[in-house]
TrEMBL record, chain A:
Gene Ontology terms for molecular function: ATP binding; ATP hydrolysis activity; transmembrane transporter activity
Pfam families attached to this UniProt entry: ABC_tran
Taxonomic lineage from the root: Bacteria, Pseudomonadati, Bacteroidota, Sphingobacteriia, Sphingobacteriales
Database matches in SMART domains: AAA (SM00382)
Protein name: ABC transporter ATP-binding protein
Gene3D superfamilies per record: P-loop containing nucleotide triphosphate hydrolases (3.40.50.300)
Domain ABC transporter: 5-229
GO cellular component, one term: membrane protein complex
Entry keyword set: ATP-binding, Nucleotide-binding, Translocase, Transport
Family label: Belongs to the ABC transporter superfamily. Macrolide exporter (TC 3.A.1.122) family.
InterPro entries given in the database record: AAA+_ATPase, ABC_transporter-like_ATP-bd, ABC_transporter-like_CS, MacB-like_ATP-bd, P-loop_NTPase
From TrEMBL, chain B:
Key words of the record: Cell membrane, Membrane, Transmembrane, Transmembrane helix
Membrane-spanning parts: 30-50, 265-289, 310-339, 359-383, 404-425, 431-456, 483-506, 718-742, 763-786, 806-826
Domain MacB-like periplasmic core, chain residue ranges per copy: 31-227
This protein's GO CC annotations: plasma membrane
Classification via InterPro entries: ABC3_permease_C, MacB_PCD, Membrane_comp_ABC_pdt
Name of the protein: FtsX-like permease family protein
Lineage: superkingdom: Bacteria
Cellular compartments annotated: Cell membrane
Species name: Pedobacter frigidisoli
Length: 229, 844
């Protein structure tokens, strides 16, 4: 299978109070297109930093990150933004909906950024899929946490991304809502055939993916494929 | 596999749409941010509109200002050759002699010093002498009639038909004088005018040796197009004869020029208000963008390019700035209608107010430039917001270097402030002084706030109670508002207090001392032959002879052998008539600061004179320089022997040039006598007696002058306060909006504390401590800057002493502090009134 993400010898070093702090140390892995992967690890293990590098939100100190065949380290910030807009979808722990936009407008934004036309119907369709068609004109503040995350799911899939990164997607939700959101996430992913990378320390959630990469202290502890995969 | 970088096709219209969407829940707040520039723009639009209207009215009414096509005037006598020329000019001519004289109201018995105008001819040729009844202006030259200013008529309860005594003649009042051409309201209340026919002037017997008479000749031309050219051609001759020429064109320029200073002051007051607004815009947008950090980071994650993020917020600021500028311009256009009311006593023309579109345009443009320029440092930071902020709030920022574009914006800001100040000030020295002071104040406040944070962190006692520790720790913890509030509150306090202090300095500067031992009545034009008689009369009224000095009129003929035409850089020295005295000793108001005072000389000795040191500077004369004086035809060579410092505010006759005794005793001269009259009844009685017995002697009632001066000052004061009011109100708005915008930094903390069980009282106390200390510190810093600035202004600009008024200073300090604390605590209170969950969800 073709890989959509290639991480080669990636390190991330921060300067903190004059000292070097290595958060990620010589990471290597590839992710196949259409697969589902969980990156797990305790707090401070470097998993969110890794997600940031994979998604082109930050630059690696060393090594290469190749997303959909494009070497991200060679791009400037605006070029990386264009790559994100075209190939990447995001789901955040704290939803990160734009508070001044309605649910519908939030879903439309990635497509608008792409300059796409006739997007309203598509966005409404996605909202319908997440069961929020009747709340399309509500602002985030008028929605519950679960509803906000469902809008976030619709937004993440709106630009038909090649790869979707979810950062602790259920971290701010109760168990029941979490279950609904996760089911929706996997269902949508299956329909769209998108590669899904979930950063989580929820082992149950991780177990639902086809591969789990465990990170600790800035290195990969283990990289296991699920037995059913 | 695709390996091309995808191209984005973002339409400009989408950026507008996004700017509109993003502003949705913030519009009222954005309006509050820029409300601080509304008043500044309003003030400037009002001033510019007023200037445009005034200039237009001066242009259209210039003929009425001069009343003739050509006016020639001289304080010297008229030579025969000159008289010959004067008689041949124009197609119609009038003559007027103007001088100060006493008049005596026969019926009521009152007397007062007036501006006497003895007129012959049909002047004014343009405009009218406004009288009640209207026909009086045309008829008063037919017989022994007078036109008396309405303020005098009111003061003495006189009526048309009553008589006034002018010198030795009685004139019947034919009409009440309302307005003469080119005369302002304030001029007529300070020196009320009385018109009499010129043909009766000699018979009044008022014209004596040394009388100061202004001869005016008015001309009307059937074709006035060549008048200015004639004046230009004949200027040297006119100057030689001591004549000034005034034409419609020159009066236009002159009137415009004299109002340029007024306009400059008004525009500068408006600009200060606007500068305060800039501080407000800058700090408010900074907070606004900080709050948008997460939304911008999310958009960046979704693929928004940095320049597009920047453009979205630029569009917002552009439109909000445009709304502010429009509001300011509308308000300013409305306010301009008030300016003529405020300034009406000083205006020589009727003002017809119209909307000045250029002024409105300037206001809108200025509002836009300021909103964008002062928002730019924060807006540029939008480009640097990393998408990483969406997944984690704290991350290592790339490098600590400032964006070079931000430096460019700072340079543009400095250039804008300097350029605009220069437009108002016109001189680079003043411009640089003004802009540098603002720059220094800004830097000082930044340094002080950093120092405060450092000191509080170091010195905060660990043992103090939680509330105090929390309140003080808020001053230096992350997301603190110390720097922003110290700068904005400090700067607005500094502006408010400086304006207040300067107003006080200006007022004190012109207030004359009028203590109980000071003379309050001055009599001048006393002839040698009248001196003893007047002394006796004064003594008969049991009044003290407080100050008696001779006055001799002279001109400078040569300085160090150079005549006026050779000394072209120093024309002023030769131009004006000098009133000098001689005395053998110095008065209490004089002090020798350089050289040696010589009080008496013998015949044939070198005549060492003493000059007021400032006058010597003005005419570029040093010690031992030689000055040749023309004392009414007689040349007297002198040497500058000493410089004196003269206390001009002391109520006595002071002179710029003092001769030693033994030189001028025989020169034509008049005397001045000062006395003190304790009651107004006595004053009226004594003045009446003086006018009856010595008609040519002029009496100045200083109590009346002081009263008039007081009225004048309160009118000027009102103008100053009116304009300063804009800056003050803007200062308060900036201050309040700075506190209100900063409240968001504390909302989450307050709610978290509340969630953890902190009582409402405890949270309010923590916030009150923080705001109290911040308010006190910022107000104190601003006040210190204001004291320093006012002292410098007093010393270097107004040449006055500055003693800070203790109680008002304390009140200013207290009120700034109170506003900060009350605004801060009230904004917290509104949060505490709602359930914590609601706020958390709104803010989350």
């Amino acid at each position: 299978m073709e890989s959509i993400l290639n991480i080669r010898n990636v390190s991330k070093i921060y300067q903190s109070a004059g000292k070097e702090l290595t958060v990620l140390n010589n990471i290597n892995f590839s992710i196949d297109a259409g697969s589902t992967v969980a990156i797990t690890g305790p707090s401070g293990s470097g998993k969110t930093t890794l997600l940031g590098l994979c998604a082109g939100l930050d630059r690696a100190s060393n090594g290469t990150v190749e997303l959909n065949g494009i070497a991200l380290e060679k791009l400037n910030e605006d070029e990386r933004a264009a790559v994100r807009n075209q190939y990447v979808g995001f789901i955040f722990q704290n939803f990160q909906l734009l508070p001044t936009l309605t649910a519908l407008e939030n879903v439309m934004v990635p497509l608008e950024l792409r300059g796409a036309k006739n997007i309203k119907a598509h966005a409404m369709d996605l909202l319908d899929k997440v069961g929020l068609a009747d709340r399309s004109h509500h602002y985030p503040v008028q929605l519950s946490g679960g509803e906000q995350q469902r809008v976030s799911l619709a937004r993440a899939f709106s630009n038909a991304p090649a790869i979707l990164f979810a950062d602790e997607p259920t971290g701010n939700l109760d168990a029941e809502t979490s279950e609904k959101v996760i089911k929706l996430l996997f269902d949508l992913n299956k329909d769209a055939g998108t590669t899904l990378v979930i950063v989580t320390h929820d082992l149950e959630l991780a177990a639902r993916t086809s591969r789990t990469i465990k990170v600790k202290g800035g290195i990969i502890l283990s990289d296991e494929k699920a037995s059913y995969a | 596999m695709p390996n091309q970088i995808p191209k984005q096709n973002i339409k400009f219209s989408w950026l507008f749409k996004m700017a509109w969407r993003d502003s949705r829940k913030n519009r009222s707040r954005l309006l509050l941010f820029i409300s601080s520039i509304v008043l500044g723009i309003a003030a400037l639009v009002a001033v510019y509109s007023f200037k445009d209207n005034l200039q237009r009215d001066i242009d259209s009414q210039a003929k009425e200002l001069t009343g003739a096509d050509l006016v020639l005037d001289s304080r010297k006598g008229v030579s025969k050759a000159m008289q010959k020329m004067l008689d041949t000019l124009g197609d119609d001519r009038s003559q007027e002699k103007t001088f100060a004289s006493m008049i005596y109201f026969q019926k009521g018995g009152g007397s007062r010093l007036v501006q006497m105008k003895a007129l012959q001819g049909k002047y004014p040729y343009y405009g009218i002498i406004e009288t009640i009844p209207a026909k009086a202006a045309d008829g008063f030259q037919n017989d022994q009639y007078a036109l008396v200013d309405q303020t005098l008529m009111l003061q003495f309860g006189a009526k048309v038909g009553d008589s006034v005594k002018v010198g030795e003649l009685n004139f019947k009042i034919l009409g009440t004088l309302i307005k003469a051409p080119g005369q302002t309201g304030i001029a007529s209340s300070v020196a009320p005018t009385v018109y009499i026919p010129l043909k009766y002037l000699d018979k009044t017997n008022l014209i004596k040796t040394g009388s100061r008479i202004n001869n005016k000749f008015y001309y009307r031309y059937n074709d006035p197009s060549g008048v200015d050219e004639w004046v230009k051609k004949n200027e040297p001759k006119l100057e030689k004869e001591g004549f000034d020429a005034d034409t419609v064109e020159s009066r236009k320029e002159q009137t415009g020029r004299s109002f340029k200073d007024v306009n400059r002051f008004l525009a500068l007051s408006g600009f200060i208000a606007l500068l305060l607004g800039c501080v407000g815009v800058g700090s408010a947008i900074h907070v606004y963008i900080q709050e948008k950090l997460s939304a911008i980071a999310t958009l960046r994650c979704l693929g928004l390019k940095s320049r597009h993020a920047f453009l979205i917020y630029l569009v917002q600021i552009f439109f909000i700035g445009l709304i502010a500028a429009l509001l300011g311009s509308i308000l300013g256009t409305a306010i301009q209608f008030l300016l003529p009311l405020v300034l009406k006593d000083f205006l020589p023309v009727e003002i017809t107010m119209q909307v000045s579109w250029p002024a409105v345009g300037q206001g809108i443009l200025l509002g836009l430039i300021i909103s964008i320029l002062f928002a730019l440092p924060s807006l540029l930071a939008v480009r640097k917001i990393s998408p990483l902020n969406a997944i984690r709030i704290s991350f290592e920022k790339a490098g600590g270097k400032r964006d070079p574009l931000t430096w460019l914006v700072y340079i543009l800001m400095a250039a804008f402030v300097t350029g605009f100040t220069h437009l108002q000030m016109k001189t680079w020295v003043q411009t640089l002084a003004f802009t540098l002071s603002i720059g220094i104040a800004f830097i000082l406040l930044i340094v002080l706030s950093k120092l405060l944070m450092f000191l509080v962190k170091k010195l905060l006692p660990k043992s103090s109670s939680y509330l105090w520790r929390q309140g003080f720790a808020n001053l230096y913890r992350p997301n603190n508002q110390t720097l922003m509030l110290t700068v904005s509150i400090g700067l607005s306090t500094a502006f408010i207090c400086t304006l207040f202090f300067v107003q006080g300095i200006l007022m004190n500067r012109v207030t004359l001392s009028s203590g109980s031992n000071q003379p309050n009545m001055v009599m001048f034009d006393i002839q040698n032959t009248q001196k003893e008689g007047l002394d006796s009369l004064t003594k008969a009224f049991k009044l003290p002879l407080m100050n008696q000095v001779p006055v001799i009129t002279m001109r400078i003929e040569e300085i160090n052998g150079k005549k006026a035409n050779a000394d072209t850089n120093n024309r002023r020295a030769y131009r004006n008539e000098i009133r000098a005295t001689y005395q053998d000793s110095l008065t209490a108001a004089e002090k020798i600061v350089e050289g040696k005072w010589i009080g008496r000389i013998k015949s044939g000795e070198t005549i060492y004179i003493s000059l007021d040191q400032r006058y010597a500077q003005q005419i570029n004369v040093g010690l031992n320089d030689k000055i040749l004086f023309n004392v009414q035809g007689m040349m007297i060579p002198t040497v500058v022997g000493s410089f004196r410092e003269v206390n001009w505010s002391k109520m006595q006759t002071n002179f710029r040039v003092v001769f030693p005794a033994g030189v001028l005793e025989e020169a034509p001269q008049f005397h001045v006598l000062m006395t003190r009259v304790s009651t107004s009844e006595m004053s009226a009685k004594f003045q009446g007696e003086v006018v009856q017995k010595f008609p040519n002697v002029s009496v100045i009632d200083l109590d009346l002058v002081l009263k008039l001066l007081d009225e004048l000052l309160s009118k000027i004061g009102f103008v100053i306060q009116f304009m300063a009011g804009f800056s003050m109100v803007t200062g308060w708005i900036v201050l309040i909006s700075a506190v209100l915008t900063s409240k968001n930094q504390r909302i989450k903390e307050s709610i978290l504390l509340r969630t953890m069980g902190a009582s409402r009282k405890q949270i309010l106390a923590i916030n009150a401590i923080e705001y109290f200390f911040l308010g006190a510190f910022a107000a104190g810093a601003g006040l210190i800057l204001a004291l320093g600035g006012s002292w410098a202004l007093a010393k270097f600009t107004f040449d006055a002493n500055f003693v800070p008024p203790f109680v008002p200073t304390l009140l200013l300090f207290g009120s700034v502090m109170l506003i900060v604390v009350v605004t801060g605590v009230l904004s917290t209170r509104s949060i505490l009134n709602q359930p914590p969950l609601k706020i958390l969800r709104t803010e989350g």
